[in-house]
Design goal:
68% of the residues lie in helices and 1% in strands. The protein is mostly helical. Helix 3 packs antiparallel against helix 4 and helix 17 packs parallel to helix 19. The longest helix is centred in the N-terminal third of the chain and has 50 residues. It starts with a helix and ends in a 12-residue tail after the last helix. The N terminus and C terminus are likely disordered. The structure holds zinc ion. The site of zinc ion has 8 residues, from helix 25.
């Protein structure tokens, strides 16, 4: 039950080898250097065989996929996994092959980079939201308590606590979204937090600020994630046949400032279409744009070579050699032209140079049947050159793909969101210096209920709330007072523990953050958010647009569901935290000396 109708149909397509063979032949005739589509069909067939538990057949399909498109890493990684499961040492061999292919495959690199980045952003947003919920539950009541006292004193409001809590929630409702929620929360609750909680809040905001800061660098991922961008088309054109549709797409791609690159890509495809005059004029245009253009000279040489004009070809290759003497493709093609013009000594020198500079890597990129047809090699862009093009093309585009997930969740662009969050943290650090202790609410040193300087009682050497004070009124024996306070404390604690249990049980991690267990909270909320993001995205936030995979392996559902359930079960059944009496009660003496956040620690 692992596969769906889609992949079964694809497997069926592979079983019609006559059609596929004819299609492959045509692709090779039009100059394809790797057979991407047949390779992906083989891959789909392998997945279908795997679902039926037939590893041998799957292995054969995967190896066939490797032969068709040698620099496509996915089949290598599947082969590695397959052999690993059967305890075969070949697993390592295929893993190395996959990594090698990945280092040559721009398309794979972009998908990996963009998915890793989007995963990190989503994870961090979910994790921060969970922490914010916990801090809101913990500290918004402090702010609401103080506000309610003001409402009662000045306006004689009815239900002042409810009114105050509603008033504090209004900004969150008016400006919903992650960035505004985080900023309001920090502004309202910072003064009550422990030092390590403050450090954690800063640590939550820093990656968003970094994201804003590096937004221009990340913009290069925008064209990389767009199948219609020039850089994506250039990556495809490296192995594609001279297909009229693709040529049209390249010519229509809007990439201001990249005319030279556009000419090169179109020229390569036109050469493969054997449209030699049009191809030559593209390469000449590219040379006019950038005179020291080794890529254009090599490919221009190819245009002449393929027409049998070996002297003119030699001219182009020699020009390329002057500019880039270490280019293996240029050297190899030069050697071929020397052979045709019977300059055999020069030819063997150029061949040696080609192999010294890695012509084997170029040969290895050619799929089954393509190498024997290639008289000379096409000089296409390396992944490194493609990344450079992507970064230049990205400059002319607005909004990184991160904004695709960032904006709907936050209501801000990556840049604005990061600066707003950082700004609110800096503002509150600054404001925190001026907030007067006496304006803040704190907890009763006995029972932990909220109180403030105006309503508390400090006769016994520490602040206790009005209710605790009332409980021991007119009692003079210290032992009786101690007993009465303990009795009240236990009653209040049990009640509060129940309330907190109910409030914090809905999302794993909230209770850990609530009780100040930040490391455990990060672990719980982290696993929870990773599972949630994986479950929603099935592993890819931006899918491989060239993929035929339509099936969803069962483990991609089971794993995240186990993660979600696991964190829920742990937070439901884990031993209930006992509230450490780590109340925000100012020490009487310290409260005057301006040590605003000193707390009193006693075990419960
Ligand atoms: Zn009390």
């Amino acid at each position: 039950m692992f596969c769906t109708a889609g992949s079964a149909a694809l497997a069926g397509a592979v079983k019609a080898p006559a059609n596929i063979a004819r299609f492959s032949e045509r692709q090779l005739d039009w100059g394809a250097t790797a057979l991407e589509i047949p390779a992906r069909l083989e891959y789909a067939a392998a997945r279908a065989e795997l679902a039926r538990g037939r590893a041998e057949e799957a292995q054969a399909h995967l190896e066939r996929a490797n032969q068709l498109a040698p620099y496509w890493p996915d089949p290598y990684f599947t082969l590695s996994m397959l052999n690993f499961r059967r305890f075969k040492p070949d697993a390592l061999f295929f893993l190395v092959g996959g990594l090698r292919a990945a280092s040559h495959n721009f398309h794979f690199q972009t998908l990996l980079a963009i998915n890793v980045l989007l995963y990190a952003v989503l994870l961090w947003i979910v994790l921060s939201t969970i922490a914010c919920i916990a801090f809101a539950l913990r500290y918004l009541p402090f702010a609401a308590f103080r506000l309610s006292e003001m409402l009662r004193e000045r306006f004689h409001a009815t239900l002042p606590r409810l009114a105050a809590l509603l008033a504090l929630l209004v900004p969150f409702a008016l400006f919903p979204g992650f960035v505004t929620g985080f900023s309001f929360l920090v502004l309202f609750t910072w003064y009550y937090m422990q030092r390590r909680e403050k450090a954690f809040v800063v640590a939550l905001a820093v990656p968003f600020a970094a994201l804003a800061f590096f937004a221009p660098t990340l913009e290069r991922l925008t064209p990389a994630a767009d199948p219609a961008s020039l850089v994506s088309l250039a990556a495809r054109a490296a192995t594609a046949p001279g297909d009229g549709m693709l040529i049209q797409q390249v010519e229509r791609a809007k990439a201001p400032g990249l005319d030279m690159e556009q000419n090169l890509v179109a020229g390569v495809l036109l050469t493969r279409q054997e449209n030699f005059d049009a191809a030559a004029s593209r390469f000449l245009n590219a040379i006019a744009e950038k005179p020291n253009n080794a890529i254009a000279y090599v490919n221009l040489g190819n245009v002449y070579y393929l027409q049998g004009l070996y002297e003119k070809a030699l001219e182009g290759y020699r020009k390329a050699e002057q500019i880039a003497p270490a280019d293996p493709v240029g050297q190899y093609n030069l050697a071929q032209a020397y052979i045709k013009t019977l300059l055999l000594a020069e030819s063997s020198r150029a061949l040696k140079s080609a192999s010294a500079h890695g012509i084997e890597n170029v040969k290895a990129s050619y799929g089954d049947g393509a190498l024997s047809r290639a008289q000379v090699f096409t000089r296409t862009f390396t992944p490194r050159e493609l990344w450079r093009i992507a970064s230049r093309e990205g400059r002319t585009r607005i909004g990184a793909p991160i904004n695709m997930v960032y904006r709907p969740l936050t209501g801000f662009s990556v840049r604005a969101g990061g600066w707003v969050m950082l700004g609110s943290v800096l503002l509150v650090v600054f404001l925190g210096r001026f907030v007067k202790r006496s304006l803040l609410a704190f907890q009763c040193s006995n029972c932990g209920e909220l109180t403030s300087e105006g309503t508390s009682n400090s006769e016994r050497g520490s602040y206790i709330c009005a209710s605790c004070a009332a409980a021991i009124e007119n009692v003079s024996s210290d032992k009786v007072i101690e007993a009465l306070l303990r009795q009240r404390r236990q009653k209040v604690l049990v009640r509060r523990r129940q309330a907190i249990r109910v409030l914090t049980m809905w999302i794993p991690g909230v209770r850990d953050f609530y009780y100040g267990r930040i490391t455990r909270g990060i672990a719980m909320a982290g696993i929870f958010s990773l599972s949630a993001v994986f479950l929603v995205s099935h592993g890819y936030i931006i899918r491989d647009w060239q993929s035929f995979d339509t099936d969803l392996p069962l483990w991609k559902l089971i794993l995240p569901v186990v993660g979600l359930l696991g964190t829920y079960i742990i937070s439901f059944f884990s031993r209930h935290y006992y509230e450490v009496r780590n109340y925000r009660t100012p020490l009487l003496a310290a409260s005057r000396s301006g040590e605003s956040q000193s707390t009193r620690r006693r075990s419960a």
